[in-house]
Structure formats: structure tokens, C-alpha cells
Write a structure and sequence with these properties.
2 domains, 5-stranded mixed beta sheet, 10 helices
């Protein structure tokens, strides 16, 4: 028997390694979710063919018609020309670039389903502002600290996208022009290149190749296997290279957040993402350095995201509301 309840919504959160799907009922209750591997070797057409197939599978398994679907919201780790729903470039999925994702998926699903596409930091900002740690704040900055860093900007209770749609790519603001390790953005010296999860690992590996000693090699088993978890664990064992890495991350995160505060005068920062698992040894110094830079006694709030692993699919679904 067909499910005739109106206004189901699908939220999709695309990451560099996993893509999460969520099905929500008319009251925004999450009634189904799953995660599938993300194939970073696919181009835009092949990738969104897979997205369409997975949407159809969810609808079939829950006996839902297209006519009972409010729409599909998708968060991507991409520069997205919001008005057109066009993916301009995606650092973690480099073959998905200059692709008209919204119009392609719209046609692929029969031409009658509303499709909304936005940057994943934007969707997460919507989720946390409406349903999580940012509730009650007129202005809010959602700052994911994970494989990369960026910002979802809420001003006057509305998501700010800028002219083309990629406002908030603040991790790619330049700190040391032409210096350091090249980032996926194509530049050297951006803030993300010094303090994101992916980039700090590159710094550590480079230091090891330069002759620095570390217990991380024994912990990981090989140079290539070192990751952020090993950096965090080695820090707790007073490993000098890990201490250097955490200190560098804290320094550039503090500069990043202070620059945002100086530019926008928004005093609510909601932090999310995998680097929160490093805990106080990273974020206590970040807050301390921020306070050292900020010569003002007015309150600034640093809050942890509240929605857990579901923030991406919740925020993607919120694009339809």
C-alpha cells in the first residue's frame, strides 16, 4: 500500500569519504537514515546518477511516490553557484567541478521534484541555528573543524551566502602568502593549510621526512598511515612533534576565529566536526589565544554543535523550509 502522507523530505550530506541520507516526515522527524561510501573518482554525472539511484531506493523501500516528496536538499563540500545549483569545484572530490548538479538531478528524477543544493557548512549552520546550539542567537557562525575548516554565516536569523553562493570559505583566507604547503584551493599560505585535520597531517609527515623524530611512526606502523588520531595520542605522551602540531593548529585556529570576529562582530561561534575529539588540549589554547588578541570585555560564546552525526542531513533537509 502506498504511503500517501504528504511532504516527506530527503536530506543528503556529501562528504569526502561518506555520503549520508536522511528521510524526514512532514513534522521534520527523522524516520530513516543510512551512510554509503563516497567514490571520489567519479565525475559529476556519474556521482549524481548514484545519488538519484539512492533516492529512488529510499522512496521505493518506504513506499513513497514522487508526488508525496516535498523535495531533496543536498549539502556538498563544494564551491556552489547557489542561484544555478552549479558545483564550481570540490577540493575533496576533484572530478566534480563546473557541473550543473541541480538541473541534472531535477531531470534525472523526472522534472517534478524540488532540488536544493548548498555548501555543507551552510546546511550545518541552518541545522545548528534552528535546532541546535545556535538557537536564540540572531547572529551565529558555524565553524566546522575537520578535514577542512570553513564557516556558515547566520546574520539576522538568515543564512548569508554572498553574491555567488560561497560566502564562508574562510579557511582559504590567506595568512602567509606563497608560503607553506599548497592547499586544495590552489594557494599556499591559507589558514586551512596550517590547521585543518588533513593539512596538519601533511605538515607532520613533511617534518618526519626532514628528520624529526616521533613515536607516531611506531603508533601508526608507517609514515603513510599517520593520521590526526595519532597526533592526539602522541601529544598525551609528550611527543615533541605532536606538541608542535597541536600548537600550530591552535595558533592558526585562534587567528582564524579572531579575524572572523573582527570582520563580522558576531559573538556566537558554534564549533563542529571531528577535530573536537582532540578536546581541551587543542581548544583551550584556541580560546586563550583568541582572548589574548581580543582587547574587549564584551562576551564571546564558543559552543559545541549539539546535533551529533545528524547535523548534515538535518541541515540539508532544512534547505526545503
Amino acid at each position: 500500500m502506498r504511503n500517501n502522507m504528504n511532504n516527506f523530505t530527503i536530506g543528503i550530506d556529501v562528504g569526502g569519504t561518506k555520503t549520508a541520507y536522511g528521510l524526514f516526515d512532514s513534522n521534520k522527524n527523522l524516520i530513516f537514515k543510512n551512510k554509503l561510501p563516497t567514490n571520489a573518482n567519479l565525475d559529476g554525472q556519474a556521482f549524481f546518477d548514484g545519488i538519484a539511484d539512492n533516492i529512488n531506493t529510499i522512496l521505493k523501500n518506504h513506499d513513497i511516490n514522487y508526488s508525496n516528496l516535498r523535495g531533496v536538499g543536498i549539502g556538498m563540500p563544494s564551491y556552489i553557484f547557489y542561484e544555478e545549483g552549479r558545483i564550481m569545484k570540490t577540493a575533496n572530490l576533484p572530478k566534480i567541478k563546473d557541473f550543473p548538479a541541480r538541473s541534472y538531478l531535477y531531470k534525472k528524477l523526472g522534472g517534478n521534484i524540488r532540488i536544493m543544493l548548498d555548501n555543507d557548512a551552510h546546511t550545518a549552520a541552518l541545522a545548528e541555528h534552528r535546532n541546535g546550539a545556535g538557537r536564540g542567537f540572531t547572529h551565529m557562525l558555524y565553524c566546522p573543524v575537520s578535514t577542512g575548516i570553513s564557516t556558515g554565516i547566520i546574520i539576522d536569523n538568515k543564512l548569508f551566502r554572498g553574491r555567488y553562493g560561497w560566502a564562508g570559505e574562510t579557511g582559504h583566507m590567506i595568512a602567509t602568502p606563497g608560503e607553506g604547503i599548497e592547499c586544495g584551493c590552489g594557494n599556499r599560505g591559507c589558514l586551512m593549510s596550517y590547521c585543518s585535520g588533513a593539512m596538519i597531517v601533511k605538515h607532520v609527515k613533511q617534518k618526519i621526512l626532514e628528520g624529526h623524530k616521533t613515536i607516531m611512526l611506531d603508533m601508526a606502523g608507517s609514515h603513510d598511515a599517520i593520521d590526526v588520531l595519532h597526533i592526539s595520542q602522541a601529544y598525551d605522551l609528550d611527543d615533541s612533534l605532536s606538541i608542535w602540531a597541536i600548537d600550530q593548529m591552535a595558533k592558526y585556529m585562534a587567528v582564524w576565529l579572531y579575524n572572523l570576529y573582527s570582520a563580522l562582530n558576531i559573538n556566537c561561534f558554534v564549533l563542529g566536526g571531528g577535530l573536537l575529539n582532540i578536546g581541551d588540549k587543542l581548544f583551550d589554547p584556541v580560546k586563550s589565544m583568541f582572548n589574548d588578541l581580543n582587547h574587549c570585555d564584551l562576551p564571546v560564546y564558543f559552543k559545541e554543535a549539539e546535533l551529533g552525526d545528524d547535523f548534515g542531513i538535518v541541515g540539508a533537509a532544512e534547505l526545503l523550509f
